Amino acid sequence: MSKGYKAPGRRAYEQDKPLFQIMDEGGDDSPTHPVFAENREVREGARVQPLPEDFEPDSRYIQFLQLHHGIPPEFTLGQLPDFKLYWLETGEARKAWQNRFKNHVIYQWRRQQSEGGRESHRSTAEKLTDTSWSDAYRIDLDED
C-alpha cells in the first residue's frame, strides 16, 4: 500500500497490518463469523472417509432424483455397481457419499439422454453398413 492511501474502515496505525490480523483484534464489538470460530461443531457425517463397502443410496435421494430430475429408481439403482466399483478401487476418501452418488446418477442420466438419439448401442460396422437412410429416396434408373 502507498503511504498516502488509507483503506476504508481502517485506522491509520493499521495500514501495515494484514486485514485478518485486524479482524482478530476487533474485540467484543466485532462478531466472529461461524466459519472462523475456533470451536466449530463438526457433524458426524462430515468426516472424510473412503466409500463404505456396504454403501447403499438413501431412499430420500432416490425419491429426490425421481421427483426433481425424472430419473426412474431402476436407473438410479442400476448406477450403483459402477459407482461402487470405481470408488472402492480408488480408495479415495471423500465427504458426502450420498450427494456424490446423486451427482453421478444425474450425470449418467443426462449423458444417456443426449446419446439416446445417436443409437449408441449399435456397433461401428452396423452404423457404417446401414442403408436404411436410402428408404426415403426412390431413384428411377429406367429413363424411357
TrEMBL record:
List residues of the DnaT DNA-binding domain.
Answer: 49-116
> What is the designated name of this protein?
DnaT DNA-binding domain-containing protein
Q: Which InterPro entries match?
A: DnaT_DNA_bind (IPR040480)
What is the species of this protein? Kistimonas scapharcae
UniProt superkingdom: Bacteria
Any Pfam family from its record, for instance, is DnaT
